[in-house]
Amino acid sequence: MPSSLVFQQNGVGAMALASPPRATDNADSKSTAGSENGSTAVAAVPIPLRNEWVFWHDKFVANATPAEYTENLKEIADVKTVQSFWSVYNNITGPERLTLRCSLHFIHKGVKPLWEDPKNEHGGAWNFRTAKGDTAFVWRELLMALIGE
């Protein structure tokens, strides 16, 4: 059953949606040894996540129709390895710096952050507020819990 986490801080929201776990293919790991100076070097080995995830962004528009809301929803990036997660996470605006009425979503690949998505049919939402100074920490810890499954 999908669930969602929504942060609201002075009208700013951030959401993490999770649907039931699904298996993904594990990428083959490769490493290289040896270098010109005789030292051993190990190439970065991709560490696959159990599931692929997608970061989404939206800006609330009052009185928007469902079609307008869907059109306003933007996919930022998908992540399927620990490295790609950190690459995206470290280069997007965190929830503590979002402009008014903007939201971040983090959801399984193949599921849109919409109640109308059939995979969210029996979903729910958890809403809670955090102190302004704790927003970035709470968001990061929740993302870690999601990708760590």
TrEMBL record:
Q: Name one GO molecular function term.
A: RNA 7-methylguanosine cap binding
Top-level taxon of origin: Eukaryota
Q: Which InterPro entries match?
A: TIF_eIF4e-like, TIF_eIF_4E
Alphabetical keyword list: Initiation factor, Protein biosynthesis, RNA-binding, Translation regulation
Where composition is biased (Polar residues), the residues are: 29-38
- Alphabetical GO biological process terms: regulation of translation
Which parts of this chain are annotated as the region Disordered?
Answer: 17-38
Give an example GO cellular component term for this record. eukaryotic translation initiation factor 4F complex
Family statement: Belongs to the eukaryotic initiation factor 4E family.
PANTHER family the UniProt entry points to: EUKARYOTIC TRANSLATION INITIATION FACTOR 4E RELATED, EUKARYOTIC TRANSLATION INITIATION FACTOR 4E TYPE 3
- Protein name per its UniProtKB record: Eukaryotic translation initiation factor 4E
What organism does this protein naturally occur in? Mortierella alpina (Oleaginous fungus)
